[in-house]
Design a protein that fits this description.
- Helices cover 6% and strands 42% of the residues.
- With 455 residues, the protein is mostly beta strands.
- The protein has a single domain (5-454), classed as Porin, CATH 2.40.160.
- A 16-stranded antiparallel barrel has the order 1-2-3-4-5-6-7-8-9-10-11-12-13-14-15-16.
- The radius of gyration is 21 Å and the shape is globular.
């Protein structure tokens, strides 16, 4: 199916309209959390502060609440383990889905997390956690361990943890299913301060790894190719007041646990809310030694500076309608795959409109423009994906429309239709879509759906 120039113009016009319509009023953050899109939310400890305002999260029920299901609030899901008010809790979810593209190609090009056309178990996700609560005065301690099994393991591996320090597989040998441990940290709280020490998700960006933390089944190019997934090190958060939190830390770069050349990187940012509908979050990282794309023309594979920032603004337009704007910009020295001694840059804009129809149904639109300016970021992630990792210097566009249906407090069903197209150069002659039929295609229509079960 081809998208006409008229349809392309309409898609771009929608993005410009959404931006201009909201320019006259404050805008805010966090789609899936601020609008209370899910019956259950992951803990704030596995989400950026910008994405999970504490007052929007469903708090753990008091001890003994789960003894009688009839006594639970209507929106509380059933739990395999009773969720205690204090101490350690165990909970999680399972997410399985299917996707297919109009080219009948096995891989969905660079589209992820469902990166191939089949049905699969994306995430069997388990969390063991003790949250901290100082009440703004005093001390507390806690921690968290997340374990993920499924096809999505490949996207959140850390060098030196799930792989050896040179990046070769350690405990995952299959091409599709594997095990990852994206978080394992201790946490200390003192008055308005909290400190994480260990391995944890990045506070950068908008979309997150846990399936029940996102509205859409598929992910934006920005999240997959423009941002880190995890960090290892120390991270401090200071709650300046009820509206402002500041975050800063020292970590071992992007998606690294223990690499050959361990080097510290500075990670930081802030979240501000007006206390009503508007939230603004700005986070970034400056990492002095990150491996370049294998196609980089200047000393490929060597470590150079890689820096990026992400701005997320959201605004609750009404009780039922949320608008989110995201802008990312990244840079790596001498990382270009097209021009020797030229640095690589990537940047883009995401926009979301998320509408609550009723307690069971939600509808959403996402429109993205992502530019891999020097062909250093976008490509096939999985080892058996024939798409090269890098070599596309141009613009990636994607428009998604989807629904969230919750027929029961423990279930979320997410159908989605997505259209992607590419405008730019290719290093190898292979276009990013329809990889089964070289040289491929510059566009793709994708239909996908998954089911999330909370336990």
């Amino acid at each position: 199916m081809k998208l006409t120039k008229l349809a392309l113009a309409a898609a771009v016009a929608w993005g410009l309209y959404a931006s201009s319509a909201n320019a006259q009023q404050p805008q805010a953050q966090s789609a899936s959390y601020a609008a209370d899109y899910y019956y259950f939310q992951p803990s704030p400890s596995d989400q950026p502060a910008a994405v999970a305002p504490a007052d929007k999260l469903v708090q753990a029920p008091a001890a003994g609440v789960c003894e009688e299901a009839a006594e639970e609030p209507a929106c509380e899901p059933w739990r395999l383990f009773c969720q205690k008010e204090c101490g350690w809790n165990v909970y999680g979810f399972a997410a399985a889905g299917a996707a297919t593209n109009d080219d009948a190609s096995f891989f969905n090009g660079p589209t992820t997390f469902p990166d191939y056309s089949d049905a699969y178990l994306n995430q069997l996700y388990a969390i063991t956690e003790k949250t901290i609560d100082t009440g703004g005065c005093g001390c507390d301690w806690g921690g968290r361990v997340d374990v993920l099994y499924g096809t999505d393991y490949i996207f959140t591996q850390a060098v030196g943890l799930e792989t050896d320090d040179d990046g070769t597989p350690k405990w995952n040998s299959g091409p599709f299913y594997g095990l990852a441990m994206p978080q394992a940290y201790a946490e200390l709280g003192y008055n308005d301060w909290s400190f994480k020490l260990g391995h944890f998700y990045t506070p950068i960006g908008y979309e997150v790894v846990p399936a029940n933390g996102n509205f859409f089944y598929t992910h934006a190019y920005t999240m997959q190719y423009g941002e880190p997934f995890t960090h290892t090190g120390a991270l401090a958060t200071y709650k300046y007041n009820d509206r402002t939190s500041v975050v800063g830390g020292f970590v071992n770069g992007w998606d690294n646990f223990d690499r050959v050349n361990d080097t510290g990187a500075v990670l930081g940012g802030f979240t501000w809310t007006n206390g009503d509908a508007l939230t603004i979050a700005l986070y970034g990282i400056a990492s002095p030694n990150e491996t370049k794309n294998v196609f980089a023309l200047t000393n490929p594979g060597l470590d150079t500076n890689r820096d990026m920032y992400s701005l997320v603004i959201s605004y609750q337009l009404s009780d039922d309608l949320l608008y989110v704007f995201q802008h990312d910009n990244g840079y790596q020295r001498d990382g270009s795959t097209f021009t020797p001694d030229q640095s690589a840059e990537w940047y883009g804009i995401n926009q979301y409109l998320l509408y609550t129809i009723n307690d069971c149904w939600k509808a959403g639109l996402r429109a993205e423009w992502f530019r891999d300016d020097d062909g250093a970021r976008v490509g096939g992630v999985r080892a058996n994906n024939p798409l090269p990792l890098g070599g596309f210097a141009g613009n990636f566009y994607a428009v998604s429309a989807g629904l969230n249906w919750s027929p029961h407090a423990n279930f979320i069903i997410r159908p989605e239709v997505r259209y992607d197209w590419y405008d730019g150069e290719t290093l190898t002659g292979q276009l990013p879509f329809d990889t089964d039929n070289p040289p491929g295609d510059d566009e793709q229509l994708l239909a996908a759906m998954d089911v999330i079960f909370l336990w």
